[in-house]
Amino acid sequence: MIQLFIILALAFSKPLNPKKVLYAINCGAPSNYKSPSGIQYEKDIQTDPETVVADYSLNSEVSSQQIKYTREPEIYLTERHAYKTFSYQIPLQKEGTYTLILKFAEMYFDTKGKRVFHVKFGSQRVIEKLDIVAKVGKYASNDEYIEFEYIAGQVFHNNVLCVDAVQDGKLQVNLEKTKFDNPYIHGIVLYAGGISETDYEEYQYMKENWDKVINEEKIKEEYERQKKSEAKVKRKERVKIRNDHLNVVENEFEFDDQSLSTSVPVVKKVGLKALITSPFGTAGLFISFFIGMSILNKIMSTISNAKIKGIEKDITESKPKQEKQIKEKNDTSDKKNKTKDTKDKSKAKQQ
């Protein structure tokens, strides 16, 4: 049943695409604001000295009220109004179809007919006798969607030319005063595309079925909360199962303290860091170091002695050979001398 309600809620959910929002102003606000839907509203830089800012967030009686028909109540907590007609200039870029969304909410009057004014593009009225309380009551958003065409530097609304609507590449949005109090506004959004591409249908559905929408969103929030809670429980179960498995594996390598308490002691796992930093571990390292150095010295000494013995052996073996060669050389020389003497004697006898 819960899933059915969520499906119905999502079927009517078509939020405004923030990527197609070209310009947005949070009227009366001193700082920028990013809405939950991702729209980046710029702070109000209106310089008309005859306009007035009202910040209802400073009034706890007003700020504590639920503003109906919106998921962006912060936009309606600040407004700009004037005791005369005043205007905003909205920058336009390339030609095409646009939708201007003007955001209103009555935060002061609670009776219709108290505040009535017109909205104009230049000198052309695009909304006449706007009475917010008459349309939605107090503490409720009333967003006006105005589709227009921007062609060759001129603006057309419902195929009617809006005279003087564009000045220096900016759309002149005039809030025209009547005898019924002062014109005002809370927010402005310029959207690239016609009304059918905006969230207009969702907004109308929300106004007509506000209580149902609120209930659906509460159900959806509860459903999401339950999902997160269930996911958290499952994560804990997975961690518990993993830890239990590790404990079983560790127990397989441990001795039973009760059965072997009188024989072999249980060897507890000790981390390398703990072992090294312990007194016994430090002493063991020093002892191991000295033993290692002693062994290394013995090895080096053995290698050195072996080299010396090898050299002596070579000298010993080579000495008899040298003597033998010298003797053989001397014997050969004696033979040659004897042969020469014999020849000399023989030659002397013949003479």
TrEMBL record:
Keywords: Carbohydrate metabolism, Endoplasmic reticulum, Glycoprotein, Membrane, Signal, Transmembrane, Transmembrane helix
Transmembrane residue ranges: 274-296
Top-level taxon of the source organism: Eukaryota
GO CC annotation, single: endoplasmic reticulum membrane
Keyword RNA-binding: no
UniProt-annotated location(s): Endoplasmic reticulum membrane
Membrane topology, record value: Single-pass type I membrane protein
Signal sequence region: 1-18
GO molecular function annotation: carbohydrate binding
Segments of this protein annotated with the region Disordered: 312-351
Malectin domain boundaries: 21-188
Principal location listed in the UniProt entry: endoplasmic reticulum
Alphabetized InterPro entries for the sequence: Malectin_dom (IPR021720), MLEC (IPR039155)
Keyword Transit peptide belongs to the record: no
Similarity comment: Belongs to the malectin family.
Protein name, UniProt field: Malectin domain-containing protein
Species name: Paramecium pentaurelia
